[in-house]
Every structure is written in C-alpha cells, then in structure tokens.
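Per reviewer request, we include the raw input and output of the structure prediction for the construct analysed in the revised manuscript.
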Amino acid sequence: MKKICGILLSLVVLIPFNISAMELATNASSVIVMEPTTGEIIYERNSHERRHPASMTKIMTMLLVMEAIEKDIIKWDDMVTVSSNASGMGGSQILLETGEQMSVYDMFKGLAVASGNDAAVALAEKIAGTEEMFVKMMNDRAKELGLQDTNFKNCHGLDDANHYSSAYDMAIMAKELVKHTKIFEFTSIYEDYLRKDTDRSFWLVNTNKLVRFYKGVDGLKTGYTSEAGFCITATANINDMRIITVVMGEPDSETRNKDVSSVFDYVYAQYGLQRIIDTETILEDVNVEKGKVESIGIVAKEEVTDLYNKNDGTGEFTYEVEVDNLKAPLSKGDVVGKLTLKENNNVIRTIDLTINEDVKKANIFELYLRYLKQIFN
C-alpha cells in the first residue's frame, strides 16, 4: 500500500457545530439539522426519539426505487400494472384503478409530489413482488445504513403500532437519497398533471409548500397522521450548500413550515461549505500491474468538504492518501484506497478513493513489448 501526504492551507475551521445559545424549531417534538456531504449535525433536539414518521416513510421507498433503477432492476419507462391492493390504499392517493397501467416515471412523480399511497404500493409490488417483501427490503436497507430507531411495517406511512423512526434516522435516509440527484427532478415540482389530456387527468400539487415559498428548497417529503402530527424532511440548496432539516410532531402545517424556514434562515446566515478536494482532481498517478496503461490517476470518490462557521478563523488541514497495489482489470468507481483528512493531527473523516477511468488488462504481446522497453531503457 502506497501512502501519500499533502497539506491544505488556509481552510476555514469549524470548532463547535452544535448551537447552544439558542433553540431552533421550538414547536417540534424532535428536530435535527444536517449538512449531508460531511454528515455534520449542526443542531439536534430529541433526535433519537422514536415517533410515527407518517409519509416521510416514503423517503426510504423512493430511495429503494432509485437504487432499483440504478441496478437496472426496473427502468423509468417500464409500465406498472396496478393491483387491487394498491388501488385500495387509503389516505393520500393519485386515484389509481385496478388494472390501470402507468409508467414508473409517472407513478414515481405521483409518489414524490402528491404523496400517493397507492403509487407507493404499486411501485413496491413492481420491485419486490409484494408489499411485504418490499417492506423487508426497507428494513434491511435501514440496517445497512446503521439506523437503530427505525422499523417499517408498510411503504407509505399510515400509522401502525410498530412502525416508527426518528428525526436522526430520517436525516440519514435523506442524506442517502440526495446522492441520487435525479430525485430533485420530482421533489422540486410544485404542480403538474398525471394522465394529462385524458378524461382522468389528475392535478398534482406538492404537499411540501416550501418548494414554492422558500427559495432554494427542492425537496423532500412531508408527513401527517393523527399519531405523528405534522412533520417534514426538508432540504434546500443555497450558495452550493445543501442542508437537510427534519422536524417531527409539529402542531400544524403552518407552524411546521415557519419553523423550518427559520432553521434555514439561521443556518445559511451562519454557515458555509468549503470544498477542499473535488472528484476531478488527480491526487496521484499510481502504477497498474498488467494494465493496458502503466499508470492511472487516483481521485476522491466524493467531494471532500468542510462545514464552517462564518464567524470563525482559518486553519490548516493535512491529508494522507493510502492506495492499494493496483492490478488490471479495474473499473472507474472501484474503491482503490482511502483519503484521511486531518485538522491539527485529528482525523476528521475518511473518503474512499477511486480511479478516473477504466483500465483493461494488457495482452501478452503488450506486456512483452513493455518488458523489452524496460530492458532498453
């Protein structure tokens, strides 16, 4: 394993992240504010309290749909045939009928914008065969994400005694979902239509009014049941910095929206995001054994960023890059090492490293010519 060191000068340092001088979202039973690229928690209160998540449940449903598309299990233009189980769902709906066919794309729009319970079940059945099997996938994915306050009993969020989550867990699910940037193509819609220009045209209006009334908000999911109260997992992207805010147990939608707006006002006034290393910067060229190319550029698999308080000073960061011994074939995206970011010799976090292009294995003739070249050189 090869180790490379570097110094990053004059980057802004954040000393305390938690806000102690004031309370945010005071009407909520629980709240958390997170910056997703670093995972830094800016503020939290009762964030591990288990509560009914209502339709915020659909964040995990949407994540599994996105991942199924990424794995080519389903495609956006695949048609979904609606079962009687799906069409019979209560609560918020897009009025699916048994036997109706709708594309994954349109059904996902109905799920993301109008919070259609019927759309959630239809998509769950499309991916897993039954809603029960899909719920198992939801719980398995929650365990993979290390969530300890979550148990799903359905894919839509209608109250069930053993269906619960927490503000912290919802933030982690949202953190994972926003990595799939296509999600904002749906969650940023304020109004649209399904079955447009037909006699069953359905007007979609986003349940998240902040999408329209707070500049920068582009998702994610509201929720309400009598047990859950009013809740939301909201995200905004302002000045190239994304923030995720979760509030649970609010008394009404107006208070919920006001609390979240105040959170965003405060955070964007006080904090900024420093990009330290992007995913295009080649950190080192590393030799590849038996590759068609003899060396390949090593890059960070995700952006290396640092959240800072605008009132704090500047400091110095260092980093170490540890790279595995590389042997062809390799694919872009393969994890080939790790970058460790330090501040004052304290490890802040580690980031996976990858290569910036595919490397095919060299054939015997290419290896022989390379061997001759080395001899003559």
